[in-house]
Amino acid sequence: MKHVFSLLVAILLIFGVYLYQFGIPFGLGGLLSGDPPQSQTTRGASAPDGAGGGPGGGSFGRRGASMATYVTLTDVVFTPYEDTFSSIGTGVAKQSVSLVSEVSGQIKAVHVEGTPLVGKDDILIELDSTSERINVEIAEANLSQAKDTLERYSTLQTRNSGAVTASNMKEAESAVAVAQGQLALAQNELEDRTITSPINGKLGLSEWEVGDFISNGTTIVEINNTETILVTFELPERAIYLLEPGREVYVTTPAINGKIFNGKIIAFDSTIDETTRTVTVKAEIDNKDGRLWPGMTFEVLLRQKTEPLASVPAMSLTWTRDGTQIWIAEKGKVRAVPVIFRYRQDDTIWIEGDLKEGMKVVVEGVQKLRPGAPITSSGSEQQDARTDGGTGKPSKANENAAGAEATK
Fold this sequence. Notes:
about 35% strand, alpha+beta, eight-stranded antiparallel sheet, Elongation Factor Tu (Ef-tu), domain 3, conserved putative lor/sdh protein from methanococcus maripaludis s2 fold
């Protein structure tokens, strides 16, 4: 009993596969539809030759129709592919200064608080300069005395009194030069007691107060000129063909939702990192409105559009020993067209081959196709498949079918 049951199951499976591949047999289809045997005979007898009138003609016409593979078609569309590279980077000010004190001293006045924006040479902090002012006064007095001596020697030499020798004149001139140098040094030390901004920019936080002591080499405040923001990011090595100074990039930041900033590449590394296989790139963003801050996280997009290429659904591409191909539907049949795969985005691929705009490409059902195989599809594609090349005229097979129905 067990063997009989297994045999029945095997028969049913074989029959199911047959129905799936070839459809309902001609004779069985007539019985299921309720047509009497003679009706089937009448159809076969009245059909034209080649569609059912000759030996085996009737069965061949209906068998051919049942063997047509059902497929889904779509149009070949030519569109450009946009190659997009995305990377995350951090922004810094193009001009940034850590202001460091070159002298030591006690703070006499602070002009930093409440002034986030400063200009070049604006006074930020003043140190006690009592000693330096005294040194300047001493240097000025020494210079005045040296000049008086030189002037007196010059007068005596002019009168030819012989009291002043050439060596005396050189010593007097040297004394004036030394006094001038000492005065310049004293004045420079006095100027160093006043700390000014070296650039235009925005001040960072500073906690210095009057009375604090600043040592030589102490960082006083950070100053950033944020009119231009630099973003450093990494790109994969396959993007190096896009790298050139001046190329436009698009930048977004989570701090400002919905806003896209335009930037441009200004520099990039000359080597590819052996570990990450990336290249370091710098881009600058105009920030005259001051909306962007140094330290922000940025997403940088680099885009490149190709020339229009044929685009089709990814499901339509098949692989063979000779390469990749797609199936084109023409006059109710299919032919294989070799293509070269170029790009993919989501479920769409861009390919190169002997293709034209508007050609019908098979999307679903490609696994069952053979060159020249008949197909059928739904909608307008099915209508095209059943007419002679989409001209609107019924094909021979449809004319035969119509004649058979008329006979019935």
